[in-house]
Each structure stands twice: as C-alpha cells, then as structure tokens.
Records
---
Amino acid sequence: MKRFDYLTPVGFVLGSIIIVIGIISGSGLSGFRSFLDLTSFFIVTGGLCAAIFVSFPPKDLKKTPSVLKQAFIRKEDNVKDLVKTFVSLSDQARKQGLLSLDEQARVIKDPFLKKGLLLTIDGWDEETIRLVMDSEIAAMEERHRKGRRVLEKAGEFAPAWGMIGTLVGLVLMLKNLNDPGMLGPNMAVALLTTLYGSLLANMVFNPIAAKLEEKTESEIFTKQVMIEGIIGIQSGKNPRNLESQLVVFSSREEWRKLQNSQVNSKKDSVHEA
C-alpha cells in the first residue's frame, strides 16, 4: 500500500524554519534581506543546471520528476502479512498440488511475486528460479541507482558552483577596491553563492538521494523474503516450517544478521578447504 510520506516535506520545512530563525535571531527581520541575492542564486542554479545537462542524456533527465515523486511516497510492506500469504499458498500446494496455485497467481498484483509463483507452477527448479529472481532484483537496483544518479550528481555540483560563485565575487571585489560602494555587493555574491550551493546539496539533493537509496534497500529486503517463500513452496516445504523460516525476516536487522552469518560460514569453509 502506497501512502504520502509526510516526513520529507516536514524535513524541508523544519530545516528552512531553523535557518530562518538563526538568521533572524542574529540580525532581525531587516537582516534577513541580506541573505537574498538573485545574482548568487542564478550563478548556483544556472551552473548546476548546465552541469546536469552536460552529464546526463535527455532520457535520464525526463525521469527525474518521477524519481523525485518517490521521495514523497511511502510503500508499506508488511512482512507478517506476506508470511501468512506464503503459509496459505504452501498449505494449498501440498494438499492440491502446485497447479492449483495458478488461479491465485494470476490475480496477485505484485509483479515480482506473481512471476515467481508462475515459474514455480511451470515446474522450474530451485536454482533457476533463484537465478531469475535475483536477476530481477539486480535489474531493479540498477534502475533505481540510475534514477538517483542525477540527484547525487546535483548534490556534488551544487557546492562546486557555490565555490565558483565565490571566486567570481572575489574577483569583482578585488577589481573594485577603489570603489567602496561595490565592496559590499560583491562580497555578498562571494559568500551567498557558497551558502546557496551548500543548502541545495545538504538540505535537498543529498537527503532525497539518501531516502531513495533507503527505499531501494527496503524493497530489496521484501523481495528477498518473497524469494525464500517461493522456494519454500517449490520445494514442498511444510507450511509450519516455512512460517518459522520466514518469521526470521520479520525485521531487516534479523535479515542482515542471517546474511552476515551465511557469508562468515562460507569464508570458514573456504579456509578449511
């Protein structure tokens, strides 16, 4: 089930409020205007857009709005409900055979789970099913990585263009040392471009990219649970045994512990050999 992720806008609003309060507490409302400069803003945003346009093809840039939208959507995957589903399917498969699951598989909305069940019904072996499903996960992870790449690069470019704006402001200031009236505006450009670039990187682009990466990890975890459930049905595992196995995955922390233990056991077996 997809829901609105209110924490994303709350984070933006909270960060903005803290910055505004910090400015006002130090200089009052009149001093707030000193932090608004169109020249600095255009240098950072214009340079950032130019760098992004050079770095990515149009097809990737067109996907950016839909990628950004995902930061405001929260998908709830209840592993406990997923375990109950697999226990029910496993019980039916043991009593009526794998072919009896065809009707349920056709109406399942999740394409990943649906594909895995159909492979099982078609009689594919465990190794092939796992290989196909793992390939699906790898392809999904790569798609998500490419979607985040624009935001991650924007997070890198924004501070750099802030520094470029600072250099522009310093050059203008040094060229007009004989004109005291120009020192203030040029110094403002020099400092505010760095501020704007850092704010865009650390309050917008990098946090959104981090949230999208976390959502990808959560989706991978859920799909790994699905693979174990599908393999359990394919191998004809007892529903209660399958439930006991999948309950371990009710938290991602338990899943990570299991993965680490499997990696360590493989290393130990290699050393023994």
---
Amino acid sequence: MTGGVLALVLSAAASSGSTLEQLADGVATRVLGAGLMGPVGLVVEANAPVLARAVATVVCGRLTLAKLSCEVLEATPSAAVALATTRELSTLVRLSILTDGATLIVRGDALETWRNFWAGERPTRGPRAVAIGLTWEFDAEVAALAGVTRSPAPAVPLELKLTSLARWGTVPAALAAGDLDGDRRAEVAVLLGEEVVLLSADAKVLARYDLSSGPAAAALSREPFGALAFTQNPARLVAWSGRRARAEVLALVGSTLRPSGAQDTITMDGLTARLEPGLNRFLPDVQVGGRGLRLPSGFQATSTRSGSALVVWPDGSATLARQLPASGRIGDVGCGSALGDVDGDGVPELLVSTARTSGDADELRLLSLAAAEALAANAQSARSTPPSWQATLKGRALVMTGADLDGDGSEEFVFGTWLADGTGELWVARRVTP
C-alpha cells in the first residue's frame, strides 16, 4: 500500500474509533502527507504520564502500520533533535498533550532530522516538516488515562440576543473596544469613512476625531477599510484609515480625542501589522510577541483571546490556532468574525459570519472553541458542524470584536453591518442568562 493511499485510509478511519485512535490516525496522516520517512522518533509530553505513554504507544502503532518504524524517545522536545540524529532516525515527531477536563488538545510538529552540511557553517535542515494541531472531545478512555473524574453536568445552552445600537449613513470600516477613560468598562470605537467615533456601552457618543488631515496613502482602496486598536499604559486609541499613509495615536481628554503622535504600524491583540495600500487587507509581514513573522498572504481581520488567534483571509477562510503560522483553515468565514468569552468561563467562543460578498443578508454562527479548533484541524467549513446558536441578519457583517461592555467578566460581541441601501448599523450580541 503506497503512502498516499494509506494516508487516505487513515484519514477516513479518523472519523471512527476511540479518541486515542482518532488522534493517532490524525498524526500519522499528517506525517505521511508531508512525505516524511522512517525510522521515526516520537516524543510525547503530558501532565499525566500515563496519558503520555498511552498516546505514544497508539501513535507508534499507527506509524508502524504505515510502514514507518517508530521509537519512543525519553527526552525533552528541545533535546530530542540531537538524540534522534544520534540514533540515525530520519523523522522526529514532537507532541504536547493538553486537557481541560472535556477536550483533548494535541500540538506539535514533525520534521526531518538530517542536516545539510554542504550549506556552510550554519547547516540547514531537510525541507519536509509539518505542524500538528488536533482537538478531540474526551471519551471515557481518555478521562481514565488523564485521571479526570467526569460527573455529568446539565448542558447550559448558549443563546445570544441581538440589539441594535446605532445607525449611520455610511459603512463601518473598522471596530475595536477597550477602556480609554479608566472606568474599567469598555468603550467602542468605530471608523466611519475617515471619522473615528468613540461610543459608550449604551451607544452614547463620547468623542469624535477626523483623520482626513493626515498624509494620503500611496493607493486608495475601492471600499472603506481601516484599523482601530486600544492600548494601555498609557491608555490610547490608535486609528488608521485606509486612505491615510500612517496611523494616528489619540488620547481622550475630557470629551475630546486629541492626537498624540503617528506610527507606521498598528497592534491588534498582540499582532502588529500594516495596512496594504489600495487593498482591503493587511500586509503579510507582521510581528507577534516582538518576533517578525511572514504569514501566507495578506489578511483581513484578526482576533485573539486566551492564547487562541483567529486570522481571516481574503479567500473566505480563517485560521484558528494557538500559535502562528498555522496550516489548518476553517472554510466559509467572513471578515465580520471574532473570538469572545460570552459565558465568562475563561475559554472564548467564536462567532463567525459567512464569506458572502454580495446579497442583503448574512448569517451568524456561534461555535465553541473545541468545535472551531476541530474544524480548523480537519480543514472543514464553519457550516459543517451544528452551532451553539445562529441568527440571520439584514446586511453583511463586516467588522466584529469581543468586549465586556458592562464589566461583569463576560464579553459581548459587537459588530457592524453593511446594509443593502449603503448605510451601516452597529449591533451587540449578549448572552441570554439562563
């Protein structure tokens, strides 16, 4: 059986069997898909040693089934490369197993261990490598291995209520939320054309600022676009219109937004980026945690919560991962999508719009983080799993953010829509308390 055919068999098998069997099939499929060869060294880390050993056993079994001999290495991920090279292993697979009592999360990578010593003083590694990110719901077997006592709890449905906050004669081009006045409650900033409007949680206008006096961008986008971000220490609002060459930094003084500088980048939830002149997207060269990174392409929106990052791409797909770059994508996700913790449990939910570019209606779908990560890991559409909640909108959702508007520790989703008559509307989606 060839590696390609076997990869298809393992991929099909991943839809059935125990959680550990599905996990092992998923890892084997990714190793085979990257064209990696045996023998394979495997390192597995987990808080529960019994679970780590069980995962290592099952994964090695699947790799052996795929005609790749496998050896479990007793080493840290950082030391495993040297150990694998010493033992003349062709491939190294490194896995970290995380659990939250309900979800099994597998993160890691697989890479060639041979090094090209003809490359000079700094030898390079082989070209084949793949990131591994898988998420599965617990079953009884995994719960036992992880030492988790699972007591059934009644399911509490997540239901949202939509409320219109404001209407404008133009389309909202950017949206952000943060505490600018120090009252520990989020304000909402909206970019309307080239005017920044700062709103209270109940949509009262607190301040306005016109960005049109700044230097013009090298090229102008056909449709309204821009970016907004709140920073702290000191509290500032950074605003960038797609028609301007630079972002302006604004401070709230009383009821006035006053300029306090300009900059060539904007940092949104820890991701620092630049607008791409003439297009409704950001350039692919970004910084994450102070580290330079080049994404696969320009992107349209980003959102980060509790270590998970959402990036929405112009082709109507989105990446959801705990680190960037990531390979798995969710299909049919629009730029009006974001992460937000609507039930206050510390784990964000994902609210997605559709990737429609025409029509006068849109659909919102609320997904749990585990469900969304499973979609990304398996490259499935956002419509391929039942949502926790859904609603149909008039107009298209263009911008969205999560925000704690009432200071209760749970977030709401705030989003702006483009209506069929060319006007815009601001909405909030709040959880309905059981």
---
Amino acid sequence: MLRLIENSASETTPFAHIEKSVIALIESPDDTGAVDAVDAALSYAVRLRATDVYFEPWDDCTALRYRIDGILHDVGKLPKAQHARIVARVKILARMITYQRDTPQDGRIESEATPCARAIRVSAFPTVNGERIVLRIMDGGGALLDLDALGFDTPLARRLRTLLERPQGSILLTGPSSSGKTTTIYALLHEILAHRNPAPHIVTIEDPVERRIPRVSQTEIAPQHGLSFESALRSLLRQDPEVIMVGEVRDPETARTAIQAGLTGHLVVSTIHSGTAAGVFARLLDMGVEPYLAASSVTGVLAQRLVRVNCPQCTEPYMPDTALISAYGFNDFGGAFRRGIGCDACNGIGYDGRTAIGELLTVTEDFSERVLARVRTSELQEAARASGMTTLAHAGAELVRNGVTTLEELKRVLPVVGA
C-alpha cells in the first residue's frame, strides 16, 4: 500500500518531504518498497503539476528531479544502491526488457497501472553511472482545453478561429520543444468539433497520442513497422478526411505531402520547428516545398511560447536589473514590476502555472507574393508586422507590464542580445 509522509515544519527545502518519503519507502524492509517509492514519486509529481520525472544515476546518488512549468527542479537524492530496484520497477510497469541495460528503450505505462492515474511515456538511456530514466506524464484525458483558456490575447484567438472556419489550407504551429504546441492543436480540434455541425471527419497522426479525443480517429506512428508520418499521411488521404492533424513535419516528404493536402480540399494542422512565424517559410523551402505550394496552401502560422506566471499568493513589487530594463525597452515604463517571492502555495518557486503568448501570421496576397519571390526571412517578418501581426516580444512585454510575469522570465523565454 502506498504510504506518503507529509511535510513537517522542520524541513528546509520545498521538496524535502518528498525526498524523505521516497527514501523511507525504497529502504523499507517490505518487498513492495520499490513499488511504493516509484508510486509515491509519480503521485507527488502529479500533485505538483510536473510534466516529467527524472531518475538520474549520479556518482554518489540517484537524483530525483521534476520538471515543473518547464523548469527542472532537484527534488531529492536517493540512495545509489537502490537505483537498480527503481529502474526495474519502472521497466516492468512500462513493459520494457528489464535485463537490457546497454541500449536505449522506450515504453509506456497505462493510466490504470499506478495510483497517479495518468498514462506515462518512459525512456531509458544508458550512462556510465547506470540507466537514466525519464518519465513524461501525459495529460489526464479530461475535457479538452478551450482556445480562450490557453492565455492568447483575444484578437489572436479571434483570428485563429477565422482560419479554422476555412474548409482547406494549412495551419502551422512553431516553437521550441515544450512550448505548448500540442496542447494548442488539441484546443484547435476542440474548437472545430464544438462549432462545426455536423462534426467533420477528423483524423490525427501523432507520436505519441497524448490524449484521446472523442469522435476523432487517432493514429500513433510506428516507424519500426513502416508507419511514419509520411506513409500514414499518404494512406490516410485515400479515406477522404476533412481535417488532418499531423503531429510534426519532420522531413521533406511529410512537408510536401501535408502542404499539398492543404491545397486539395483538406484542412491540415501541424507543427514545425522554427524560431519565428515568418521563419517557417524558409524552413519549408529548405525542405523542398515549392514556393507556390507554400504561398497557396499555408493560411496561417502561429509561433508560441509558454511563460511562467507570478504566484498570485506572494507577488510583490520589485526592481529588475537596469540592464534588463534597458534591453527590453522598459526605460519609460511608469508602472510597477512584480514578481512572486515564494510561498507554500507555489512551493517556494515564485511562479505558479504558465500562460501562452503567440504571434499569428495570417497569409495575405501581398505576403504570398513575397514568398513566391523568395525574399529574406527578415523581409517576411516586416511584412507580417506591417499587416498587423503582434510579435512574441510585444505579447511578452504586455504580460510584464500587467504584472503577470517578470522580465527575468521573459529573458528566459525570449532572450535578446545584451539582456
């Protein structure tokens, strides 16, 4: 049975009670010590809204770390002698080969297998100190987020809805890993399901399927069996879907097929890695997509980031470094900068949750002409701004002015030269 040791007033770090609890469980004389320790670590992670749990073998210990709101936190140091038991327990849950320790493995833990009731994606990777285990905690599978709940400003959300009303075209999302692109795509699919009647034929190709969506046909790619994004997309087009979600455009073949589908009567929603919305077009052309296809098929590009939000329980005025104020153009700011100082509600972090910021590039006739002319990305960016696109930097600055986040967090997410 899972036993959690509650926090005490004598503990000195926000996560000390978790370290104490997991160590007590793993060193228990009971045969279920490793089972209870892993279950406790996962249950605490869900309670703290962590997205990833790390069991890292270091020279002197096994480090337990949580990724919370995109930042990795050291939670505790577990006895190194117990590392093999932890790894074995995770591998059994994930149906991985327990005796295979010298090659990477991937697995999945189903939601009913642990008390945290979440599906978990597992990765094991060999290091000189032992196997490093990373567990990605998937979403709980509840109701899909509404587009308005993501944090985008109202004009951007309104323009996104306009793009979703079109029967065909390609909507691309871009941003670094863990910037919320998949969550936004699920919100877009929810928007389509909620406002189109009758419900359209929606299919997804994902790696992996992070949450199940009612009334949507979802497919998980399996490259080891020949089911890649590109091959799945080609086969899927024969079934005449109306809306296609492709988890990621990774290669030239997928790019060309997806963009072509957006031009031939399908609404395609996908992600692609690029620094800015305008930079997506340079990436597509580098992948071999013809300029006329990119200009004609892509209707909009959303670049986004996730910014940590000040804890509302402990926020107070403060003064950032003057160099930071100058670098981000806040010299004339007459308001008060605010930050969370850390409290029990936010586990001493000062931030509690994240919100999305974005820049939405809507492709106009003038912009299409520039894509056809293969102009530089900087010129495309200026054209997008001239047509009314609000940049990521401007959206982030608004959050700072309104006391939602800090300049230091803006620097972390959107660094500028000299900041």
---
Amino acid sequence: MEHIQEGLDLELARAVPAAIARRGLFLPIRIYDERVEVFVTEETDRNMLDEYRMHAPLPLRPIKVERGALLETLQQIHQESGFSMESLVIEKPLSTLANHLAEKIDLLDAADDAPIVQLVNSLIVQALRDRASDIHIEPFENDIIVRFRVDGLLHVVLRPPKPVQAPLMSRIKVMAGLDIAEKRLPQDGAMRVQVGKKNVDVRVSVLPGHHGERLVLRLLNKDERIACFTELGLTEEQMVWMNDRTKVSHGLLLVTGPTGSGKSTTLYAALSNINTPEKNILTIEDPIEYSLVGVGQIQVAPKIGLTFAKGLRSILRQDPDVIMVGEIRDLETAEIVIQASLTGHLIVSTLHTNDSVGAITRLIDMGIEPFLVGSALDGVVAQRLVRRLCEQCKAPYSPPSHLLSMYRGNLPWTDMPDNYFRPVGCEICLGTGYRGRTALFELLTITDALREQLVARASDHYLRHLVRGEGMITLYEAGLRRAASGLTSLDEVFRVTRQTGERT
C-alpha cells in the first residue's frame, strides 16, 4: 500500500464500483473536516458526481487532479491491494442476491453491500466455476431468466424478479462501456475482470426485445494456454495429417463447422505448432480471442473501413509467411485468399459449412473458379464438439440391437461393439452426466482425382461418395468410434452429427 497516497480511506474509495469511477472520472479518497474529499478532473461527468453526492455520507469537497493521477490511484486501489472480483462476492445463493436487489434498484445505493455489484460479480464468478462459456440474460413479461451455456448446452440458473431488470442491465452496460440511455438499438461492448488472479475478457452483446434488452456475455479466459495438437483430440494419424499441411510453404487449409464448434481453437493450435522466429505470421480476426506471442494480430474494424479484404491486402505487403484469416465471408476475401495461397503464402482460415465437402462447394458458389479451388486448396478440416462422459458417474450399458443397427446406418464398417457407456449425473458434472468436451474431426485431402471432379463440376453427392471411397473418416464415424471407446455416448454423437449427412 506504500504506492497509494497516505491517508486514503480504502473502504470509502471502494464503495464506488471501479467501472463507475473510471467512467465518471471521480474518486472519493477520504473524509476530512466533516467532508468527503473527492478526486475530480476537467473531464469528470458532473451528472454521475451529483448522483454520488446524493448518497455520500457527508458533503463533498472536490480536489482537481490530472486524469492520469486519478486513474493510477484507482488502479492501485483495486489491483495492487489484492482486489479481485471474488473479494466482492458474498457466499449467498444467486436467488437471495436477486431478491435483495429487487428492493434496492439504485446503482449507487447501499454502498455498504452494493447488491447490484454483488449480483453481477456472483453471476460471473459462478459461471466460471461452472465452466460456462456464455451467460444469457433474457427479460420476459413477469421475470428474467439467466442461463449458463455449459459444454455447449444452456441451463437455467436463476429467475430474478422483474424489478432486478433495470439495475442489472445498467450495471453490465456501465462495466462494458456501453450507453445506458440507449435501449432501442443493439450494442456491443467488452470488459476485463479479474477472478482469482486470472484475467477474463467478457464480450457483451445487447439486443432490444419485446420485454426489454437481452444480454449475452461471452467469457474468455485470457490466461488459458493455447492448446496444442495433442490436446485437441486428434488421433496420431490425424496429427500427422495436420502437421503435413501446416508446415508447407504455401497453400490453403480451411477449418469448417458451425458457430461454437471449436474452429478458432484449432486455428490457434495450428499457428502455435508452426510459430518460430524464422516465420512472419500475421492474422486478421474478428475478434482477437487470444494473444499469441510472436504473431502479429489485427482486429477487424468495419466502422472505419478495416474489413477482412482490406486488411488482408495490407498484410500481403508485410512480407508474411503464414496468414490466418478469421473467416472467409465474401467473394472479395475469398479471391484474395486464393491468390495469396497460389503465390507463396500458407493461409489458414474458416468457413461456416456443415462438412468438409461443403467448404469446397461454398467457395465455388461464392464465385471462385473450380480449377482455382482445386489448385489452391490443400485440405479441409470439418469439426464438431461432443460432450465427454463424466468419469465419476458414467455407467456401462448394452443398447438394443435395433438401435445399434440404426446408429450404424449405411456405414461400410461393422466393428461396432455391444457395450457402451451412458450418462448418469452427479454433483461433479452438475447432474448432466457430462463434463468437458472433445472434438470430432473429418479431414479431407485434396487429391488429383478430386481436383478432376471439381473441374468437371461434379455434384456434392458424387464428391462425398468419392472421398469416402478414398478412405476419409466422416464426423459421424469418428463420433461412433469415440463412443465405442467410452469417451462419449451414442446419443451425444447422434445429437451433434445427425444433421450433417455423415450416416449415409
């Protein structure tokens, strides 16, 4: 505490949430001569200061300081003193905090226990404890529903009363730097919080609805280590395939799948695998989810004209060896990617398609000539995430023969065992029977035979038949093999892959 001004009243200073103090640029520092001395600057928000004045224990005495000095003091108060979000969390059920808050709806009210601060912080901390990737806050006519997305599925965790809606939304919007007065237009913001000495980035999306604004908070642990190929769930044969296609000097490697299927994790693992001082690796992303040491990362900013296509053109003038494009969204970006991969650059990127063959036809549908797709494309990775069975409670069982026959479908292999495992549910897995996820991969190699059929504009169905004949293992088949090994269940595999056409 030696870095903070002598005589500072930490309890008084922390009574104002850090986000509000930073946004309003004011900071109460101590009580002296029956007045609350408050740091202010030339840019202090007078409305927010007046609101604090109404709740302050004594009249205010403003002390004008430089903006930098105020922010430095604020940072010292909330970081150097060991402050973390968990220190604000009272071990009470979320429902108790929500009901308490329903009686106190002012952001600066009840500074002694700050119920709105307690509720928001407890939500984030509880979500991280439950391994949630997203928090959904959805207002309805009579109440609010708060759901966590854990292992890809949403679970209701709280139903706060309706009076909680306004202060809850306002608190989160203030923390994310959004306009709390704007309730008619969508908004996107972000904030960084510290939980247990871990930095967590929170992306906030606000969408107006019939009964108020919906909020979705995406949680990203910035301290998590980037996964390597051995941690993705790849088999030894698949790791050899990925190594072969990420260590070449040029070409195009695509990773496909729906939103939330782990495409970005695979791309980051690929870059980490080839990240050496001898290579100039540049990325253009929307958004940048993780920072890679030694890699130049660019954030797309459409509002100022920095699109994927424009950024990619500039990247090509930076003498890159490897380029990661967050997503191919339009013909312009696709054309630049194809040309770059044909002129001595290794490009890795993503597409939103259901399977590996769909990525090829998607590029052609965008307007890329089939012979260019065949020449530039080196391989396609299609992937899905399936939930892993909880090791503490999973139970063996033997599915009926008619179910095994249905699961097998028209697959050319018949080595399906009779015994599998099913989910049960326990405290460790929150009663779901599953804990954590693993990836299923479908790896498509661009062979000469496939290139010939691309030029001939063969149908999707024929291309799938061709690559199956060449030995490609589909997502569904990969999932059945994971179920046979006891890692996941047949129902989970069928749920995740049944609409992608792998069974036929």
